[in-house]
Amino acid sequence: AIWNLGSINLDMIYSLPHMPAAGETLAAQNFSRFLGGKGANMSVAAQRAGSVVHHIGGVGPDGDWAYDRLASFDVDTAHVARSETVTGHAIIAVEPGGENQIILYPGANRALQEVDLKQALSMAGPGDTFICQNETNLQSEAVGYAREKGMRVCYAAAPFEAEAVAAVLTNLDFLILNEIEAQQLEASTGKAPDALGVDDVIITLGSKGARHIKGASGTVRDVPAHAVTAVDTTGAGDTFTGYVLAGLDQGLSMEEAMAQASVAGALMVMRHGTADVIPTLDEVNKAKL
Ligand code: ADP
User: Fold this and answer.
1) I need a labelling partner for 73 at 20 to 30 A (CA). Which of 22, 36, 251, 281 fits?
2) pLDDT tens, 44-81?
3) pTM given for the model
4) Does the annotation count 74 as an active-site position?
5) Where are the chain's structural domains?
6) Is the ipTM of this complex over 0.85?
């Protein structure tokens, strides 16, 4: 099974005639609410890829909608705690041309309690996969426990923060990042990805595919992207990551898992939206790209 210490956000999208100026009050013409957060997206992707997924996270007193939404994707929410802190949310203002401005408030995602994390991971063990991203607190504690438990320990270095990666690096089996994050990592550590002491590193390269680097040997394997017409690339990376983890969790080789993830990523960029439209394994298997 997959254990994901991850963010749960409310993405609140407001359509505006134009961006408000300083001091201006502006009525939105339309409002919609979606489940978001890299953590929640990865949980949904791994579940749709056929794995059992336990989400470890938190929502606030206003968190019923997000909690129920995550549970509706058949992700296990037994370890999603309730805190006094407001649910993490993004206020997304969109102009007619599609340009946006985003206010992000981490809220409950950064107020997780160590006792809850320990309790959750006490149920996990060897053969299980652990993943976290950089949108919660307790990342370094979590990778430490996960390693003690003998889990496969994975980290998605997003959003990139040099100190956050440095705090988990020695306990990782698997690191996944996009091209920009990989450049930031190389700049902050002064080391190439294969010299970090991590067994498996994947760098996703958008429409150029993805690269797997074997840590010990430096062996590089490139997995091509599928040529598709992208309409919305939001969530492509989270979908790819969820699919790779699920593939490995279900016993696929890295090459097979990445090939499946590449199809899932391609289908994802052809669709508008995030968690709601992450492709299922059935769609991935039937896709003709
Ligand atoms: P992120 O969203 O984290 O920046 P990427 O943009 O690298 O991640 O995308 C993750 C994966 O999704 C890529 O490795 C690729 O397999 C797939 N993907 C992303 N963009 C495209 C695209 N335009 N066409 C086909 N596949 C894509």
Assistant:
1) 251
2) 999 999 999 999 999 999 999 999 999 999 999 999 99
3) 0.96
4) no
5) 2-16+28-286
6) yes
